[in-house]
Design goal:
Number of strands: 6
Order of helices and strands: EEEHEEHHE
CATH class of the largest domain: Alpha Beta
CATH topology of the largest domain: GMP Synthetase, Chain A, domain 3
Strand order of the largest sheet: 1-2-3
Number of domains: 2
Distance between the termini: 42 Å
Number of helices: 3
Helix content: 25-40%
Structural class: alpha+beta
CATH superfamily of the largest domain: K homology (KH) domain
Largest sheet: 3 strands, antiparallel
CATH architecture of the largest domain: 2-Layer Sandwich
Length: about 140
Amino acid sequence: MKARVQWMGPEQMSFVAESESGHALVMDSSAEIGGRNLGPRPMELLLMGLGGCSSIDVVLILQRSRQQIRDCVVELNAERAGEDPKVFSRIHLHYVLSGKGLDEKRVERAIALSAEKYCSASIMLSKTAEITHDYEIREDA
């Protein structure tokens, strides 16, 4: 996997990040160090990446176990260390899953498999952060 990050030039702390798959986004820093709020902060991207990685796993696992999942939202809440390097120290993922007749045991298993086996981001971040999970299931009408 490759990526490229290029500074957008003097008088700012904005960068364009390009992925090997051909996608690009702008990252920025806080105003205190010259940012202009043009994009997410790099640590925000790490947190969003964790949410995306785990969501993909959970949805795929539930679909493969023939669950009628219609929606998956994961809300993440993270705390960072107070001193440099300000790594994530705690991360909580709250899954909100919607569908018809979702089996609670299968939902629990899908989340556990993501956290413990499949989600590279979760496994990597768990080296510095305590990662916890919970969920709610909403029945579709």
